[in-house]
Amino acid sequence: MAVKEIPVYLFTGFMDSGKTKIINDTLYGSEFAANDEKVLVICCEDGELEYDEEKLKTVNASLVMMENEEEFTPENLKSITDEYNPDCIFIEYNGTWPVSKLYQMDKPKEWVLAQSIATIDSTTFEMYQTNMRQMISEQYMYAELVFINRCDANTPKNKFRGYIKGVNRPAQIVYELKDGSIDENEELPFDINADVIEITDADYGIWFMDCMDNYKKYDGKTVHFLGLVYNPEDGKLRRNVFVPGRFAMTCCADDIQFLGMKCKYDKAYELAHRSWVDITCKIKVEFTKEYKGMGPVLYPVSVIPAEKPEDELVYFS
Fold this sequence. Notes:
It is a single chain. The protein is built from nine helices and 16 strands. An eight-stranded mixed sheet has the order 3-2-4-1-5-6-7-8, with helices on both faces. Strands 9, 10, 11, 12, 13, 14, 15 and 16 form an eight-stranded mixed sheet that branches. The termini are far apart. Helix 6 crosses helix 7 (133-140). By secondary structure, the protein is of the alpha/beta class. It has helices at residues 19-27, 30-33, 53-57, 74-84, 99-104, 122-131, 133-140, 157-167, 204-213; strands spanning 6-12, 39-43, 61-65, 88-92, 111-121, 145-151, 172-177, 182-183, 197-198, 222-230, 241-249, 256-260, 263-264, 276-288, 293-305, 313-314.
């Protein structure tokens, strides 16, 4: 007999970051409510906004509170699943519990993680990122969708995007304004329509992530930046290929990674590994095995030896 699959929607984020609101909005949305599915909401913290159990009944939903981390065990989750026999499950996870625990633990065999959504309060995000970086990054590290709410014209979206993409590059990011509408304006700290897009050290991380995620809009564009050469002598790269890039600090000093793009250059063999170059190049979107699909490939217009910068690292802020 086939096991009934139950889609599980996971909501992570610090207390009062908007998890309960987004769950309520989903449950009472006309499209979801019309499905008449039996829903189980597992709430792991008691925030400022509470669930109305009588109202939940109108959309065929039940609420189970599980505020002690010791209760959040495979055995209890299995028992609750059997008792309520839901068609889908919403989990409002506790913002002080490690999200990795949920991913690593044995879950009921019926559970299928359908989507993971992290909520972030834009008004406190920078403070948490500065003072509790590891703890806050845990909340959005595994999320497919990061929902940043309470935004306004002064919200540093580029900085926030850098924080998130530094530890979770595939994540989709949505910015919600204070009036509840979605902000679809994309802000970049460089002129993407310039004849030559100037990428400063301060903007390199943001440009790299945007170019890798949205490579189509850079097809045919010309960019200029200072890069560190990856060109090892062990044959890992073909003779006419090197990778210019920068080492970037993502969430902390222990999490530094090299951000570089494939560059086709017939004089790549002349470039010493870990040397610095001032590079101007044209971007072409191509299929490459390194990207396991389509992505930006650089074609140099000029490659000039350069001195290393005072700070070799780039950041997302």
